[in-house]
Write a structure and sequence with these properties.
single chain, eight-stranded mixed β-sheet
Length: about 700
């Protein structure tokens, strides 16, 4: 069944990544940040091919045709549409990259080709090549005695067609991961050359006995063998060992894309596609680096003033104005709910809470779910301290966090060594919820401090992603959280909860009932949603029903959005906006109703089938009036954004919102940064005044 108000998720995702690329095109974005957006676009596309294209490539070989329930397209049709759309994106990226590179050169930041170099630079690089590069290279020819090698996923290779006497052979050189992707040259302020450029320039020395006909650099993308819907792995008892095995196997899976640096002869192209096992439509020619992580390192090779001038203005997460410096966090959260808004506010108060809990005699246990962590994490340090201090520490760590598996394996071993109880999720279901429960016991009995967030406990991304973190002593929420940890520990996914909405059992049905509540109000009903993705067909159908009932629906959806707004008599009361800016919009907020009766939930779950049916997710109601008002202000800022916001049209395109002559420009992220700074300064001033009054009072009394 094809619905006119839904669209294919893969093509919707490509539209999202195009919006990322548009940030690289925007002249309002500083130059070095534009280069970073090209890098983000590139790594996003890599992951898309490894996961989504990889899975579709497998599906197309099934005897029974698998049809997308939103667009009616089978796997082959989706792949054809993807390849066609991606080719257009490659052309756009090529033009934007060229423009950014030209502008960077004006500032002395130069990505040179070998032929552009001065003789002094060549002399330096030749020495560098023979001392540091040539000794670690492993060139290989392919003939009857040397089979075609396995080409490692996302590794840059040098390929060349050679001849010896009358015999033609192919040769390949994988570029070892130990080598830097770029080599910095002497001179100010920042000049560099890609390592593959240098190796290509020395092919005649590497293959001195051969004649070189054609040569290029190339990179293969392979299927990551991850189910696109639930990303499940069918494993038995010893989970950690099998996860390590999967990481090794991933390197040898089928190719889904070939990127090459230059046009080559038909003969050479046929040879590569046949040996690699891909079709012509999976081959992309690009002058760009195949990986662009170096874009985030350039600032360290520039004078500070130049790096600052070409980057976003420095911003540090602010102190939450609700909180008093010098007062224990445990005391403060017992008095009032606290809502932290990342990256505008610091994650430090939550970390301080954990540190206090690790030392407080009244704390008997700390329980937490972990999906992604930074490579260096104070959070782990405090959990280990708590265990070493005799607290019962339980960590539910998800080893199947996509591409973070090894990091989580390492942290799980560290936590176990410190005496923490480590649980590796639930069989067949990922634990994606963000919940921390601190249990305290005193003369009055058992008390809970519960933290529930929309994002990971990652101290690095807390400065880059917009997320919300609620800390509450609500006894029912604490009791629900305790029940959640108990149920996950025994793999019971059908537990009953009083206030928390928990998938896979109750979250989706509860959301549908909340939408039904607004449908009953008709035109008086209102729904505001902030999400990363929307693909769940049942929820999409219910939102369509609400629109038909006259309910006002406003949605902020950063990425995939399979529902199309503005379709007459279907979704005409739905408005959808996407925001791509300096920070990654990541918070999930569900709002139902108006005024004092409005219900607000924070959640770890997007409206995707994998989240609502195949993951353990949590949505938590927000009751504190001050916290609710803070969330409303965030949503109002997002809905008003006419600088970075893009409005989804009925045809699936995104357009800039029309700006009226009398209307001022609103960049929600800039606005929220400014508000956070002003609120922190105001709180600091008030604290200073109170301190002065206390000193004056003390002086007058004495």
């Amino acid at each position: 069944m094809i619905r006119e108000y839904t669209q294919n998720r893969e093509l919707s995702w490509l539209k999202f990544n195009e919006r990322v690329l548009k940030e690289a095109e925007s002249e309002t974005v500083p130059l070095l940040e534009r280069l970073k957006f090209i890098s983000i676009f590139t790594s996003n596309l890599d992951e898309f091919f490894m996961i989504r294209v990889g899975s579709l490539s497998e599906l197309q070989h099934l005897k029974e045709s698998t049809v997308d329930n939103k667009s009616g397209m089978n796997a082959q049709q989706q792949l054809s549409a993807i390849y066609q759309n991606v080719r257009i994106l490659y052309e756009e990226r090529e033009a934007i990259y060229h423009e950014v590179e030209q502008q960077l050169r004006v500032h002395g930041i130069c990505n040179f080709s070998y032929r552009e170099l001065e003789e002094s630079d060549r002399k330096y690089l030749n020495k560098y090549f023979f001392e540091y590069i040539e000794p670690v290279l492993s060139p290989q020819i392919v003939d009857e005695h040397h089979p075609f090698p396995h080409l490692i996923n996302k590794t840059v290779h040098i390929g060349t067609m050679l001849s010896y006497k009358s015999k033609k052979v192919f040769a390949v050189i994988p570029i070892p991961a130990i080598l830097p992707s770029i080599i910095y040259l002497k001179g100010e302020p920042c000049r560099y050359i890609r390592v593959e450029e240098l190796i290509l320039a020395h092919l005649s020395e590497i293959f001195s006995s051969y004649r070189i006909h054609e040569s290029l650099s190339f990179c293969i993308t392979r299927n990551a063998d991850i189910n696109p819907d639930d990303e499940e792995f069918d494993f038995g008892a010893d989970f950690r060992k099998k996860m390590k095995k999967v990481l090794k196997q991933r390197r040898r899976l089928a190719a889904v894309r070939l990127e090459i640096s230059d046009s080559i002869s038909k003969e050479f192209m046929s040879y590569l596609t046949e040996k690699i096992g891909i079709s012509d439509e999976q081959v992309y020619i690009t002058k760009l680096p195949f990986t662009m992580k170096y874009a985030f390192d350039l600032t360290h090779h520039l004078p500070q003033d130049k790096a600052s001038a070409l980057s976003y203005s420095r911003f540090e997460p602010q102190e939450n104005p609700q909180l008093k410096q010098g007062m224990k966090m445990i005391t403060q959260v017992q008095q009032k709910d606290v809502l932290l808004s990342y990256p505008y506010e610091s994650m430090d108060p939550f970390l301080r809470l954990l540190k206090e809990a690790s030392q407080d005699p009244s704390v008997v246990s700390v329980k937490i779910t972990i999906y992604r962590l930074a490579s260096q994490a104070k959070l782990v340090e405090y959990l280990c301290q708590a265990a070493e201090n005799g607290k019962d520490v339980t960590v539910i760590i998800e080893l199947r966090a996509r591409f973070d598996e090894q990091n989580n394996i390492d942290w799980s071993e560290h936590l176990e060594d410190a005496g923490c109880t480590v649980i590796y999720g639930v069989e067949d279901y990922k634990v994606h919820s963000k919940v921390c429960l601190i249990t305290m016991r005193d003369k009055g009995g058992i008390h809970y401090i519960t933290q529930i967030g929309t994002g990971n406990y990652n101290e690095k991304t807390a400065k880059q992603y917009t997320d919300l973190s609620l800390i509450t002593t609500d006894p029912q929420i604490g009791s629900d959280a305790a029940e959640l940890f108990k149920n996950v520990a025994i793999s019971n996914l059908h537990g009953a909860y009083h206030r928390l909405l928990v998938s896979p059992n109750s979250l989706k049905s509860a959301v549908i009932e909340l939408i039904n509540g607004e449908i009953a109000k008709g035109a008086e009903g209102r729904i505001i949603l902030k999400l990363n993705s929307v693909t769940d067909l049942d929820i999409i159908e219910k939102l369509k029903e609400a629109s038909c009932a006259g309910v006002e629906i406003k949605m902020i959806v950063r990425g995939i959005c399979c529902i199309l707004p503005g379709i007459e008599e279907k979704t005409e009361n739905i408005q959808i906006k996407s925001i791509v800016g300096r920070f990654l919009e990541h918070s999930r907020i569900y709002c139902f109703g108006r005024g004092e009766e409005e219900l607000i939930y924070l959640s770890s779950a997007d409206f995707m089938t994998r989240n609502t049916q195949r993951r353990v997710e949590v949505a938590c109601p927000v009751s504190d009036p001050e916290c609710k008002q803070k969330i409303r202000e965030i949503l109002d800022a997002c809905l008003a954004d006419n600088v970075k916001g893009r409005v989804l049209q009925p045809d699936g395109q995104y357009v800039e919102p029309g700006l009226k002559a009398s209307e001022k420009k609103t960049d929600c992220q800039q606005l929220l940064m400014t508000k956070a700074i002003e609120a922190a300064r105001s709180a600091e001033t008030e604290t200073g005044k109170m301190s002065l009054l206390q000193r004056l009072f003390k002086f007058s009394v004495s």
